[in-house]
Amino acid sequence: MGRPATRGLKWRRRISNLLILGGLLVLLYPVGTWAVTWWEQRALQQALVASHPDLAEDAGAALQDDAVLVPLDFGDASAEHLTVKEQEQKAESIALTRALARAAAAFTEEVGESGGAPLGRLTIPKIGLDVVVIEGVGRGDLREGPGHWPETPMPGAGGNFVVSGHRTTYGAPFLRLDKLVEGDVIELILPYAALRYEVTRSVIVSPNQVDVVDQRGVEEISLATCHPIYSARQRLVVQARLTAFKLLDVGAAAASS
Question: Over the stretch 48-79, which tens digit does the pLDDT of each residue have?
């Protein structure tokens, strides 16, 4: 008479154990992906610094001296109303902006179609982010870190540099992207330049609203991730305008003109 009850108890225990195991796997999966990305990021940063020692420091440190402000504001004054010093500053700013564009073109050609190649370091002081950005947004690419949309121009080429990243798994680089507000600083350091951006807007859109990151003929960066947390139902996009830059190899950029 007791056997059916015993069998039922065994099955309930087995089901309970399976549910517990399933719960543990769900909890351990994000941890496992974070470990994978941590290892990949470590290797990427070592490779970057080995090939480009300037990238050992972040953009904020590189921009402390001799940064070029964008735009350099002279109001509506014509050349004859500018002081000699202002004319020199304006000429230098224009020359360096053109040098930045040449450096961006050269770097674009160097990267080519190298999916997964490390490009540089993205830092956002407010949310404690310091991560290597790679080329490409394929599933395998984003497991290593935030990825640059290859169809969008490199910084300095006069357009919108778009980067996508995970929000919960694989290191969750963009987990706290929703904390950024207008005026917050985003910094990027590439082999040819250190750049500072200031946030202009944060928008939530559907996955098919890619027009939000269209090219508008201005130097900006767009960071995109899934929204809300643990869902891919929408996209959170934070955009920022370039406010300052510094060429890391002015001589090489000038020589390429």
Answer: 888 888 888 888 888 987 788 876 554 444 55
Residue for token pair 């944060």? 202
Residue 206 domain-assigned? Answer: yes
Whether 98 maps to a domain, the answer reads yes
**126-159 per-position pLDDT tens digit:** 999 999 999 999 888 888 999 999 999 999 999 9
Spatial separation of the C-alpha atoms in residues 173 and 33, rounded to whole Å: 12
* Encoded tokens for 109: 């050609």
166 belongs to a structural domain? yes
Number of domains composing the chain: 1
- CA-nearest of 162, 150, 50, 77 to 108 is 150
CATH, residue 173: 2.40.260.10
Residue 14 belongs to a domain? no
Q: Which domain holds residue 168?
A: 32-255
Write out pLDDT tens, residues 199-248.
Answer: 999 999 999 999 999 999 999 999 999 999 888 899 999 999 999 999 99
Long-range CB contacts for residues 105-111, cutoff 8 Å, separation at least 24? 105/157, 106/192, 106/256, 107/154, 107/190, 107/191, 107/192, 108/153, 108/154, 108/157, 111/135, 111/154
Amino acid in the structure at residue 231: S
